[in-house]
Amino acid sequence: MSLPLIIICGPTATGKSDLALEVAEKYDGEVINADSMQLYRGMDIGTAKLSIEERRGIPHHLLDILNVAQDASVAQYQALARAAIDDIQSRGKVAIVVGGTGLYIKSIIDEMNFPETDPALRKKLEDEAELLGAAELYSRLRVLDPEAAAAIEPANTRRIIRALEVIEVTGKPYSANLPSDTSLRYPDAIHCGLAMERSTLAPRIEARVHRMFEQGLVDEVKSLIGEGLLEGATAQRAIGYAQSIALINGQLTTEQAIAETVVATRQYVRRQETWFKRDQRIQWIREGEPRLPFIEERINS
RNA sequence: GGUGGAAUGGCCGAGAGGCGAGGCAAGGGACUGCAAAUCCCUCUACACGGGUUCAAAUCCCGUUUCCACCU
Question: I want to staple A68 with a disulfide (CB 3.0 to 4.6 A). Which of A48, A235, A288, A294 is the partner?
Answer without folding.
Answer: A235
